[in-house]
Amino acid sequence: MKPLLQNKIGVLMGGTSSERDISLKTGSAVLSSLLRQKFNAVEIDPAGGILKKLEKEKIDIAFISLHGPGGEDGTVQGLLEIEGIPYTGSNVLASAISMDKELSKIIFLHNDIPTPNFIVARLDAGDEAGKCINMLAENEIPYPVVCKPACGGSTIGITIVKDEKGMAEAFALAGKYDGKLIIEEFIKGRDLTVGVLRGEALPVIEMSAKSGFYDFDAKYKKGMTTYICPAKISEDEEMQCRQYSLMASKALGCSGSPRVDIRMDAEGNVYVLEVNTIPGMTETSLLPMAAAKVGISFDKLVYSILEEAYEKKR
Q1: How confident is the model at residue 286 (pLDDT cuts 50, 70, 90)?
Q2: pLDDT score for 284
């Protein structure tokens, strides 16, 4: 068995999902870190076919920096399993379940992990906006609600629907990205997130968007959001956030460095929204920000994530 530094690392980045540009930023930051640390590391973009690229590069370990469908949903993980290439992050099943917000929520509820009330719309079954309006009423889910693709990320295709009039437009937007939609109760409160590294919860981060909605622009346009780390919450609220994040990560079977997104209402009640199995990894992303607060540099974080994949290989 080669020592870790002697392994050739392929950084999988780019891909074909709607989150390609974000993936390229994550992958570039990871690749730069690996090269700084004297690894033999190369970029591999699955767009245009991945098998020939894997065969050409003959990598020992894959560092997955792909976001969205095709990279975060278990598909590339399954391919790497077949090819016998160890990889960073969660396994096939955990990746697939975490990517699907309906399945995640079912598991959260089964494990007594609070999550916003929701309904599911399936376009291939003929569900449409009018039917969802009725379903919301039947399930006593009040407006505003959040309409979003069931399998997606970076808040792409998401809308806060204030009343019945806005449902058709929100439905059409989310439907561009997925045939299954989640319509869930909007929890008025604060946006929080907790990274999990090697089974330990990192400090809680609060994201305070200037627009009041932590959407794509708030996430990726400079100056649109204020990040507070550690979040200014009580010890009890922090404990709840960290506890539920660990529970959610464990319930879904995640490994690597998942990040758990949370909403906390005015009474301090915590609701888990989703688990990101491959969170952003640029120098200014949330996971590295939280790691830095406990003395883990970006390079050390990248090394730790890679080391776990190496240990699986062993």
Answers
A1: very high
A2: 75
DSSP at 123: G
- Alpha carbon 110 to chain centroid distance? 21
Q: Report the catalytic residues.
A: 19, 154, 220, 259, 261, 274, 276, 280
Alpha-carbon distance of 224 to 212, in angstroms, equals: 10
Q: Are 88 and 306 in contact (CB under 8 A)?
A: yes
Give all domains of the chain, ordered by start, each with its CATH number.
4-88+298-313 (3.40.50.20), 98-113+188-277 (3.30.470.20), 118-185 (3.30.1490.20)
Residue with the two structure tokens 């058709």: 168
Tell me what the mean pLDDT of segment 198-208 comes to. 93
**pLDDT on residue 97:** 96
Q: Are the CB atoms for 151 and 138 separated by under 8 Å?
A: no
Residue 256 near residue 90, CB atoms below 8 Å: yes
Mean pLDDT over all residues of the chain? 91
Q: Which residue has the tokens 């929080």?
A: 192
Task: Examine the pLDDT at 220 and tell me if it is beyond 60.
Answer: no
Strand partners, 210: none
Cβ neighbours around 58 below 10 Å, total: 10
Supply 219's token pair: 């996430």
E strand map for the chain: 8-12, 40-44, 61-64, 118-122, 145-149, 159-161, 180-185, 189-197, 200-201, 205-209, 225-228, 259-265, 270-276
pLDDT value of position 2? 79
Cβ burial 147-176 (10 Å sphere, 16+ → b, else e) = bbbbbbbbbbbbbbbeeeebbeebbebbbe
Structure tokens at 29: 């930051």
